Amino acid sequence: MWIRRECVASMKRRICIRMSAFGGGLNRSTQHFILNAKMECLQMKQSHRRGFSTAEKTELWYRWQRGESLKAIGRAFSKPSSSIYFQLVPHGGIRPAPRRRSRLALTLSEREEISRGIVAERSVCSMARLLSRSPSTVSRELSRNGGYDRYRAALAIRGLGMVRTAQSGVTGKVSTLKP
């Protein structure tokens, strides 16, 4: 017996709703095997959930510290209170410390020195000695950012999403918010 695809799709939705309501699933019986085979040809579209941006997380923690309820914060972000809850729980309701770059990460001046070393046709080992770094660190930096022929310090910084502010000299994430 052949069933039209539209009928199978509506059947699939009804069965999924019934199974989720009773907490059941398909077992290995012949009927379920046939039904499962018919349903496999149809793919349900999965919705993509958008997380919180850095600015939204900052606002979320600010509202939480002011004493707003989970529901009020959720309403402000058009999200359920459960998504707010799962942002707060991993940190015990205490705002986490701001992220900082590791002292082991290459700085902008070190990246520029690598770029100048390439122009001067220095070897990776000589550039590493100049920077007091391991040759593998310089080698990895080069391979991550276009290789010996195409490396540019400014592009390497942009590729990391990092920018250096002129006033403070602090390195931080590039803002992706639109004005």
Distance linking N and C termini: 59 Å
Please, how many helices? 10
What value does the average pLDDT take? Answer: 75
Characterize the overall form.
elongated
How many E strands?
2
Topology:
Blueprint: H1 5-22, H2 30-40, H3 54-66, H4 70-77, H5 81-88, H6 108-119, H7 124-131, H8 135-144, H9 147-150, H10 153-160, E1 162-164, E2 171-173
Antiparallel strand pairs: 1-2
Helix pairs in contact: 4-5, 6-7, 6-10, 7-8
Structure description:
This protein is mainly alpha-helical and 179 residues long. The chain is built from 10 helices and 2 strands, in the order H-H-H-H-H-H-H-H-H-H-E-E. Among the domains are: 5-20 and 27-38, no CATH class; 54-91; 108-166. Helix content is 56%, strand content 3%. A hairpin with a 6-residue loop joins strand 1 (162-164) and strand 2 (171-173). It is elongated. The model is unreliable at 17-23 and 163-179 (pLDDT under 50).
Put the structure in a nutshell.
This protein has 179 residues and is mainly α. The chain has helices at 5-22, 30-40, 54-66, 70-77, 81-88, 108-119, 124-131, 135-144, 147-150, 153-160; strands spanning 162-164, 171-173.
List keywords for this structure.
179 residues; mainly alpha; two-stranded antiparallel ribbon; 10 helices; 2 strands; 56% helix; 3% strand; elongated; disordered C terminus
